[in-house]
C-alpha cells in the first residue's frame, strides 16, 4: 500500500500564493506519476496538475496553467504544488494522488492511491 499525506492548505486572499506538499510512504515508487486534484462543494473531483515518474514531465489543467507549478523530489518521494495568483474559484479540497499508469494520467480512475485532502480557501 501507498500512503499519501498532504499539508499546506489554508486561507489566502485572492491574488495570493500558497504551496501544497504531499509526502508518499509505503510501497511507493519514483516511477509512479503523482498528481493533484481538487473538489469544490457540490462538484466532482477535477484534475489540476501532475508530474510523471521517470521523465518528470509536468502537465496541467487549462484553468491553472501559468499560475500553478508542480514539482517532485524523487529522493524524498514528495510532490509540491505552488499556487500563484489564486482566485476564489480555486477554493476546494485539494487531493494528492499517485498513479501506476504509464502515460499522462489525468482522470480520477487512473489514480490508485489518494490522500485525505487539504482545504484551500481563497477569499475575494
Our measurement of the CA-to-CA distance between the termini, rounded to an integer number of angstroms, reads: 40 Å
In the predicted model, the low-confidence regions spanning at least 5 consecutive residues are none
Strand content bin: over 45%
* Number of distinct helices: 0
Strand-pairing-aware structural class? mainly beta
What would you say this structure looks like, in words?
The protein has 124 residues and is mainly β. It has strands spanning 2-7, 10-13, 18-26, 33-39, 46-51, 58-60, 68-73, 78-83, 92-99, 113-114, 118-123. The strands form 2 sheets. Strands 2, 4, 5, 6, 9, 10 and 11 form a 7-stranded mixed β-sheet that branches. A 4-stranded antiparallel β-sheet has the order 1-3-8-7, with no helix packed on it. A hairpin with a 4-residue loop joins strand 7 and strand 8. The radius of gyration is 13 Å and the shape is globular. The N and C termini lie far apart (40 Å). The mean pLDDT is 95.
Which terms summarize this structure?
0% helix; 124 residues; seven-stranded mixed sheet; mainly beta; single chain; 51% strand; four-stranded antiparallel sheet; globular
Topology:
Blueprint: E1 2-7, E2 10-13, E3 18-26, E4 33-39, E5 46-51, E6 58-60, E7 68-73, E8 78-83, E9 92-99, E10 113-114, E11 118-123
Parallel strand pairs: 2-11
Antiparallel strand pairs: 1-3, 3-8, 4-5, 4-9, 5-6, 7-8, 9-10, 9-11
Q: In a few lines, what is going on in this structure?
A:
The chain is mostly beta strands and 124 residues long. The chain has no helices and eleven strands. Strands 2, 4, 5, 6, 9, 10 and 11 form a seven-stranded mixed sheet that branches. It has a four-stranded antiparallel sheet with strand order 1-3-8-7, with no helix packed on it.
Amino acid at each position: 500500500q501507498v500512503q499519501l499525506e498532504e499539508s499546506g492548505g489554508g486561507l489566502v486572499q485572492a491574488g495570493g500564493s500558497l504551496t501544497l506538499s504531499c509526502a508518499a510512504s509505503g510501497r511507493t515508487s519514483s516511477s509512479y506519476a503523482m498528481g493533484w486534484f481538487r473538489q469544490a462543494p457540490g462538484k466532482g473531483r477535477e484534475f489540476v496538475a501532475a508530474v510523471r515518474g521517470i521523465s518528470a514531465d509536468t502537465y496541467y489543467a487549462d484553468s491553472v496553467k501559468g499560475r500553478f507549478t508542480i514539482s517532485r523530489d524523487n529522493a524524498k518521494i514528495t510532490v509540491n504544488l505552488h499556487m500563484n495568483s489564486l482566485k476564489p474559484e480555486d477554493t476546494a479540497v485539494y487531493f494528492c494522488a499517485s498513479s501506476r499508469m504509464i502515460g499522462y494520467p489525468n482522470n480520477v480512475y487512473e489514480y490508485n492511491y489518494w490522500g485525505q485532502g487539504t482545504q484551500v480557501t481563497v477569499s475575494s
